[in-house]
Write a structure and sequence with these properties.
- This protein is α+β, with helices and mostly antiparallel strands.
- The chain folds into 2 domains: 3-52 and 279-410, no CATH class; 60-234, no CATH class.
- 54% of the residues lie in helices and 17% in strands.
- The chain has helices at 3-16, 18-54, 85-94, 128-133, 145-149, 159-166, 209-216, 239-253, 273-316, 318-326, 331-367, 376-402, 406-410; strands at 60-65, 69-70, 73-74, 98-112, 117-125, 137-140, 154-157, 175-178, 181-189, 204-208, 228-233, 268-272.
- The strands form 2 sheets. The protein has a 6-stranded mixed beta barrel with strand order 4-5-10-7-9-8. A two-stranded antiparallel ribbon has the order 2-3.
- A hairpin with a 4-residue loop joins strand 4 and strand 5 (117-125).
- The longest helix is centred in the last third of the chain and has 44 residues, at 273-316.
- It is elongated and about 105 Å long.
- The protein starts with a helix and ends with a helix.
- 40% of the residues are buried.
């Protein structure tokens, strides 16, 4: 019996019990749909995290101030005054491959406009900061090196800060006060959303670092240290070596043993964007694998359902199998017929499940506003897995049917 005839016989057998065939395939429909949907949700979360890390800029190293200890209590990263403007200039001057450097200070202050007020993060930066972060403007312009040198009271603000301080009005050219010092808005940044850590980047006011240190933070502190230094490398390939060179330079400048890399000794931390991306996406990757694993259980359960139904089918059709064997059918023909039935059920369930999964993923993305990215790889993997389930769980019933003794099968009641 050729493959075409075997397939026709198998499909005819399935069509005789449409409801049972449909219910059998339902387990795989649910399993494949769950795999496609959950993997899409996991990939969407991963893509969102990667986009947030990418919002830091390209090829960025962040050098953070270390921890300060007060009354035997360590205050955490960025609380020490270990980094200085001289450190930033030394990095710019002595480390090859550096394309931009922006020293940074940060505080949180109440900003007061003509009719509104809002507490926002105030960042002191150099003009290179916007190039490092690749942060375009929606209106106005950036502050210049000249304005930084003279400590001008100008500001570039995020979209959230602009909305809270000036409402729907054009913020460019408007004024607001920080600690009774008037600042003029010269630019409004495009929205970037949250960072991987959950901080709202758009709720920020960015001013020249000299202005921040001399007129805001420096008015209350005798020693003003940098919060961090943002460094941009020419290419991703030079970042690991650059990280080592910056570490050696800062240990030398801070009087730390060159070969001493003990975290208790170093008063700074260097974080590579590559490292940040890996850490940020690790949890999303783990979640995706976990969701795929949970959904795969549904596929296995569906496969067990196929095996169960096929065993029932073998029992119900024992006399039919015996008659076919008595009329000259080979055991391989019987085995092929039942395998075709099992694979047809699984593939049908896989195709319908893929459609259901795509629809569910789109519904989650549209209605629930949850990112969902369904890749071709996940669709192919789910379909192939469903076909493999049909082969694996259909083989035993098919083999059992092919091994029936024709005489005993014909006498079966």
């Amino acid at each position: 019996m050729n493959a075409y005839v075997t397939t026709r016989v198998a499909l005819r057998a399935l069509s005789r019990n449409k409801l049972r065939s449909g219910l059998t395939a339902l387990g795989l429909i649910i399993g494949v749909g769950a795999v496609v949907t959950l993997v899409g949700i996991g990939n969407g979360a991963k893509a969102q995290i990667e986009a947030r890390v990418a919002s830091l800029g390209q090829n960025v190293l962040q050098i953070k101030a270390g921890s300060v200890t007060k009354s035997a209590v360590r205050q955490g990263t960025e609380t020490a005054v270990s980094l200085s403007m001289e450190d930033a200039e030394a990095i710019r001057r002595e480390i090859p491959g550096v394309t931009a450097v922006s020293p940074e200070v940060k505080t949180k202050l109440q900003a007061v406009s003509a009719f509104r007020n809002w507490k926002a993060g105030v960042y002191g930066e150099s003009p290179e900061y916007f190039r490092i972060r690749q942060w375009p403007l929606s209106a106005g312009d950036y502050f210049t090196d000249q304005e930084m040198r003279i400590g001008a009271t100008v500001a570039v603000i995020g979209s959230v800060a602009a909305q809270e301080l000036f409402g729907e009005e054009n913020a460019v050219g408007e004024s607001f006060r920080l600690q009774s010092i008037p600042f003029r808005v010269i630019g409004v940044l495009e929205s970037k959303g949250e960072t991987a850590a959950g901080d709202d980047q758009d709720d920020s006011i960015i001013i020249p670092i000299t202005t921040a240190m001399q007129r805001l933070i420096g008015r209350k502190k005798v020693h003003v240290g940098l919060r961090r230094i943002n460094v941009q490398a020419a290419t991703p390939e030079v970042m690991p070596e650059m990280e080592l060179q910056i570490g050696r330079l800062l240990r030398q400048r801070h009087g730390i043993e060159i070969n001493d890399k003990d975290e208790e000794t170093e008063d700074f931390k260097i974080k590579s964007q590559l490292e940040l991306a890996e850490v940020a996406t690790q949890s999303a990757r783990t979640m995706t694998l976990l969701l795929a694993g949970i959904a795969s259980v549904s596929l296995i359960v569906g496969g067990i359902g196929i095996m169960n139904i096929m065993l029932v089918s073998v029992t119900e059709r024992t006399r039919e199998i015996g008659l076919r064997l008595a009329m000259g059918a080979y055991p391989r023909d019987i085995r092929r017929q039942f395998l075709v039935e099992a694979i047809t059920l699984s593939c049908m369930g896989g195709l319908i499940g893929i459609g259901a999964g795509l629809g569910a993923a789109r519904w989650v993305a549209t209605v629930q506003a949850w990112p969902s990215v369904v890749s071709v790889d996940s669709i192919l993997l789910a379909f192939l897995f469903s076909a493999a389930v049909g082969i694996f769980f259909g083989f035993y019933p098919a083999r059992k049917a092919s091994l029936l003794d024709p005489i005993e099968a014909l006498r079966y009641e």
